[in-house]
Write a structure and sequence with these properties.
This is Magnesium transport protein CorA. The chain has 2 domains: about 25-295, Beta Polymerase, domain 2 (2-Layer Sandwich), CATH 3.30.460.20; about 300-365, Methane Monooxygenase Hydroxylase, Chain G, domain 1 (Up-down Bundle). It is built from 8 helices and 7 strands, in the order βββααββββαααααα. It has helices at about 85-95, 100-105, 160-170, 180-190, 195-210, 215-245, 260-325, 345-365, and strands at about 40-50, 55-60, 75-80, 110-115, 120-130, 135-140, 145-150. It has a 7-stranded mixed beta sheet with strand order 2-1-3-7-6-5-4, with helices on both faces. Strand 6 (about 135-140) and strand 7 form a beta hairpin. Helix 4 (about 180-190) packs parallel to helix 7, helix 5 (about 195-210) packs parallel to helix 7 (about 260-325) and helix 6 (about 215-245) packs antiparallel against helix 7 (about 260-325). The two termini are about 45 Å apart.
């Protein structure tokens, strides 16, 4: 695992954390309006059954029909939704609801499940970490013989382990239905959060050691960024629990078989673990911030104690120096400081000052005010 370190030079765009609805207020329901920066669509088609497997990159939706045969499962992965015509063709071919297609291109959706007559529509959020934290929405349609996933088009999606299992025929995916394929995709998305959480946890442990040894300002700024990222992670993970609860309901159109629900419950447990981790790391960030504040207060108190001791020592010394600095003429009166004419007067004053300092230091030491 690569070393995890948030660079001080990395400045995350603030709009990434803001809610932004893409569709215009008052627009007709089902209007497909991709954002201006949406990427062109790249389509990867995987068709398989227990005995065969085909994987092709296609450029037009019409190419799908030649691969769809009864008994085979068709998984079409669309990377980028900047081409409205492609989305409309997919909607017509697979019988997708217009409202679901609208939700696909509005990448602010909360993870959820919509139950339509001919298919399920699932929204999830994938996480990526490459010097900074980012999220990507994935919309998934689950039908009787097809699974359609639509992504925003960022590099890497965390679904390569699923594709590799299909290629090699590992596990149950090649001999199961679309519901199990949907489970493996959701499971891969949820599992993608664990390495990110582990990296944040390791970094927080390092920050704790740095604070104990006197953290620099850069470390504290990094702690603040981690706290913000953990808050974003929790916000992204939490709705997956509700999404999985809907999938586990018996009334979900019969698309999810009983044997698949067992696996979905395991994913739900993983989501609960992630939520617990997010809560723990959020509290850890707050505790470390409080710990740093207490360390600063302790060091400030130590400095103030030293300064107070020094000032306290100089109070009697100043008194002695001020006393013998008064210009009373000893020749005018025997009471006007006769020791000023004493041969050992100056050494006596210095010895008195030194004795006062040693007495005070001994007292402070016995009181354990100095080490």
């Amino acid at each position: 695992m690569p070393t995890f370190r948030l660079s001080k030079r990395v400045k995350r765009p603030k709009e990434k954390f803001r809610f932004r609805r893409r569709s215009q207020p008052g627009s007709m329901p089902g209007t497909i309006a991709p954002p201006e920066d949406a990427l062109p669509s790249k389509m990867r088609l995987i068709v398989f059954d227990q005995e065969s497997f085909i994987e092709e990159f296609i450029t037009d939706v019409s190419q799908i029909e030649q691969y769809r045969t009864p008994g085979r499962i068709c998984w079409l992965d669309v990377d980028g939704y900047g081409e409205v015509e492609t989305l409309l063709k997919l909607g017509k071919m697979f019988g997708l609801h217009d409202l679901a297609l609208e939700d696909v291109v509005n990448a602010h959706q909360r993870p959820k499940v919509d139950d339509y007559d001919q298919h399920l529509f699932v929204v999830a959020r994938m996480v990526q970490f490459d010097r900074e934290l980012s999220f990507e929405q994935i919309g998934m349609f689950v039908g009787n013989d097809f699974v359609l996933t639509l992504q925003e088009g960022h590099e890497g999606d965390g679904l390569d382990p699923v594709r590799e299992r299909i290629r090699r025929g590992k596990g149950r995916v090649r001999r199961s239905g679309t519901d199990y394929l949907a489970y493996t995709i959701i499971d891969a998305i949820v599992d993608g959060y664990f390495p990110v959480f582990e990296q944040y946890g390791a970094r927080l442990s390092d920050i704790e050691d740095e604070i104990e040894n006197g953290a620099e300002e850069q470390t504290i700024n990094e702690l603040h960024r981690i706290r913000r990222d953990v808050r974003s992670l929790r916000k992204a993970v939490w709705p997956h629990r509700d999404m999985l609860n809907v999938l586990l309901r018996p009334v979900t159109s019969g698309f999810i078989k009983d044997e698949t629900q067992v696996f979905l419950r395991d994913v739900s447990d993983h989501v609960s673990q992630l939520i617990d981790a997010a809560n723990y790391y959020r509290e850890m960030c707050s505790d470390l911030r409080d710990f740093h504040s207490s360390q600063i207060d302790r060091r400030s108190n130590d400095v103030m104690k030293v300064l107070t001791i020094i000032a306290t020592i100089f109070i009697p010394l100043s008194f002695i120096a001020g006393l013998y600095g008064m210009n009373f003429n000893p020749h005018e009166s025997p009471y006007n400081m006769p020791e000023l004419d004493w041969y050992f007067g100056y050494p006596f004053a210095l010895a008195l000052m030194a004795g006062t300092v040693l007495t005070m230091l001994t007292y402070f030491w016995r009181k354990k005010w100095i080490g």
